[in-house]
TrEMBL record:
<dbReference type="InterPro" id="IPR016035">
    <property type="entry name" value="Acyl_Trfase/lysoPLipase"/>
</dbReference>
<feature type="short sequence motif" description="DGA/G">
    <location>
        <begin position="188"/>
        <end position="190"/>
    </location>
</feature>
<dbReference type="GO" id="GO:0016042">
    <property type="term" value="P:lipid catabolic process"/>
</dbReference>
<dbReference type="InterPro" id="IPR002641">
    <property type="entry name" value="PNPLA_dom"/>
</dbReference>
<feature type="active site" description="Nucleophile">
    <location>
        <position position="42"/>
    </location>
</feature>
<protein>
    <submittedName>
        <fullName>Patatin-like phospholipase family protein</fullName>
    </submittedName>
</protein>
<feature type="short sequence motif" description="GXSXG">
    <location>
        <begin position="40"/>
        <end position="44"/>
    </location>
</feature>
<keyword id="KW-0442">Lipid degradation</keyword>
<dbReference type="GO" id="GO:0016787">
    <property type="term" value="F:hydrolase activity"/>
</dbReference>
<feature type="short sequence motif" description="GXGXXG">
    <location>
        <begin position="12"/>
        <end position="17"/>
    </location>
</feature>
<dbReference type="Pfam" id="PF01734">
    <property type="entry name" value="Patatin"/>
</dbReference>
<dbReference type="InterPro" id="IPR050301">
    <property type="entry name" value="NTE"/>
</dbReference>
<keyword id="KW-0378">Hydrolase</keyword>
<feature type="active site" description="Proton acceptor">
    <location>
        <position position="188"/>
    </location>
</feature>
<keyword id="KW-0443">Lipid metabolism</keyword>
<feature type="domain" description="PNPLA">
    <location>
        <begin position="8"/>
        <end position="201"/>
    </location>
</feature>
Length: 343
């Protein structure tokens, strides 16, 4: 029998995307699922594209190797002095980097970095063959960006993929030069869809989607917002997940209204000619929140090889727990209650 097919919706979160690397590493190593569609934003898009590149080179093992190569090289792009680690393992940005972040509110990237020096562009050019991906991507691939002039979500599929499209997906306009594609300016996809789920529900062969989320769906009650820094961090967190939450809320509502709850168990098995519904899409969830909730928001910019390895391990552990508890649900039922999480 063929392996159950699974879509992946990968949320962005800067350096915290190394957690998603760990999740993907565990899923690829497990080998139980075939992958159909990948939708990613920012770091989620980087993971999706690198996974597709590695799969073309060598299947599952090639994808695992490509992801490790990417995150290892990314960790090596930053010189010492960007992050510091406490004795208890806590990670923080150094005062110099925090000062630079404060300047970003008053200086444009063109003024602060007039030559547009971007190590990530060089790294992607070295590790990803975009022309080859456009010709023969092994998955349905979707990269989210935000059209700067209208605020609309722009989804680049595999046929449109380019290094600029991928950089646009992770472009914080106060920090990086915004890519221009076909004369249009694009910013971080998190403003409009983080991640965008709807492309995965159209025209694919998988009826199951695994959401890999880096931002918490609920913040711990004890997490304070009584300082300016904490308040700004919470506002940014909400802003970068609002579109995704609204999309999932709409899906949860649509599912609840489509068929009366008491009839749903038998109604879905009727032939469509007799009034039955097409097979309902199923959802699954791996959350980083429980593992990362104590990390400061600033650590999304903490480019550090050691930090990446820590997050990778946490992602593997989370995926391993999900596989043990819910892998058998793929192809059969939801393993997350959309109404409870998003409704």
């Amino acid at each position: 029998m063929s392996a159950p097919r699974l879509n992946l919706a990968l949320q962005g979160g800067g350096a915290h995307g190394a957690f998603t690397w760990g999740v993907l590493d565990a899923l690829l190593e497990d080998g139980r699922f075939a992958f159909d569609g990948l939708s990613g934003t920012s770091a989620g898009a980087m993971n999706a594209v690198v996974m597709a590149q590695g799969w073309m080179d060598g299947g599952r093992d090639g994808a695992r190797a490509a992801l490790r190569r990417f995150w290892t090289a990314l960790g090596d792009t930053m010189p010492p002095g960007v992050t510091r680690q406490d004795v208890d393992g806590g990670v923080h940005l150094t005062p110099m980097v925090k000062m630079w972040m404060a300047w970003a509110h008053y200086v444009t990237p063109a003024q602060f970095n007039p030559l547009d020096v971007n190590p990530l562009r060089t790294l992607l050019a070295e590790q990803v063959d975009f022309e080859r991906l456009r010709r023969g991507c092994p998955f349905r691939l979707f990269v989210a960006a935000t059209h700067a002039d209208s605020g609309r979500l722009r989804m680049f599929d595999a046929r449109e993929l380019s290094i600029d499209a991928l950089l646009a997906s992770g472009c914080l306009p106060t920090v990086f030069h915004a890519p221009r594609i076909d004369g249009q300016t694009y910013w971080d996809g998190g403003y409009a869809g983080n991640p965008a789920v709807f492309p995965l529900l159209r025209g694919g062969r998988a009826a199951d989607t695994l959401l890999v989320l880096l931002s918490p769906l609920e913040w711990p009650p004890a997490q304070p917002t009584d300082t300016a820094r904490a308040l700004h961090a919470r506002v940014a967190e909400i802003a970068f997940t609002a579109a995704f939450r609204r999309e999932m809320q709409a899906l949860a509502h649509e599912r609840a209204e489509r068929v009366p709850r008491v009839h749903r168990a038998w109604h879905r098995w009727l032939p469509r000619t007799l009034g039955g519904d097409p097979p309902e899409h199923r959802f699954h969830l791996v959350e980083a929140g429980p593992a990362l909730e104590n990390l400061a928001g600033e650590t999304r910019l903490a480019v550090s090889a050691k930090f990446f390895e820590t997050l990778h391990l946490l992602g593997r552990e989370a995926a391993t727990r999900w596989l043990a508890r819910h892998a058998d649900a793929v192809g059969r039922r939801d393993s997350v209650d959309l109404a409870a999480k998003f409704g």
